[in-house]
């Protein structure tokens, strides 16, 4: 299953509240992410506001579209937009290209 990594920028003066809003995330949002195909999804936040997300999914475009179709995602994104420099975070993700994977390279040489 492909691993996706993306970045976003949280406003530095909003970090504490951003963290608070994620502990815990609404149950219906968690269920929607799972049902849309987001697996092993984690967010990492640096002190300057750099947010890095990592997830596993069979088809990221399909997983994003499935979330876009949910009412809970619209509510969540509307609430989260104020924390980001770019507005709605689900529309501003900067997906990174994987350049190294230990397990893949070890498997290729075995």
Features:
single chain, alpha+beta, Alpha-Beta Plaits
Structural commentary:
- This is L-rhamnose mutarotase.
- InterPro entries: Dimeric_a/b-barrel (IPR011008), Rham/fucose_mutarotase (IPR008000).
- It comes from Catellatospora citrea.
- One of its GO terms (biological process) is rhamnose catabolic process.
- One of its GO terms (molecular function) is racemase and epimerase activity, acting on carbohydrates and derivatives.
- The protein has 110 residues and is of the alpha+beta class.
- It has one domain (3-109): 2-Layer Sandwich (Alpha-Beta Plaits), CATH 3.30.70.100.
- The protein has 5 helices and 4 strands; from the N terminus they run E-H-H-E-E-H-H-E-H.
- Strands 2-3-1-4 form a 4-stranded antiparallel sheet, with no helix packed on it.
- Strand 2 (39-45) and strand 3 (50-56) form a beta hairpin.
- The longest helix has 10 residues, at 71-80.
- The mean pLDDT is 95.
Shape: globular
* Multimeric status of the protein: single chain
According to DSSP, the number of beta strands is 4
Number of domains: 1
Q: How are the strands of the biggest sheet laid out side by side?
A: 2-3-1-4
Distance between the termini: 20 Å
Kindly provide the radius of gyration, computed on alpha-carbon positions and rounded to a whole number of angstroms.
Answer: 15 Å
What is the average of the pLDDT values?
95
Q: DSSP helix count?
A: 5
Strand content: 15-25%
Low-confidence stretches: none
Write down the secondary-structure element order.
Answer: EHHEEHHEH
Write the CATH architecture name.
2-Layer Sandwich
């Amino acid at each position: 299953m492909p691993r996706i990594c993306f970045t976003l920028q949280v406003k530095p003066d909003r970090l504490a509240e951003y963290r608070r809003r994620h502990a815990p995330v609404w149950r219906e949002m968690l269920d929607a992410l799972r049902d849309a195909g987001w697996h092993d999804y984690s967010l990492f936040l640096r002190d300057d506001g750099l947010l890095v997300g990592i997830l596993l999914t069979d088809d990221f475009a399909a997983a994003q579209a499935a979330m876009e179709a949910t009412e809970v995602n619209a509510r969540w994104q509307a609430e989260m937009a104020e924390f980001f420099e770019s507005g709605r975070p689900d529309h501003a993700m900067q997906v990174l290209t994987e350049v190294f994977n230990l397990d893949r390279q070890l498997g290729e040489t075995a």
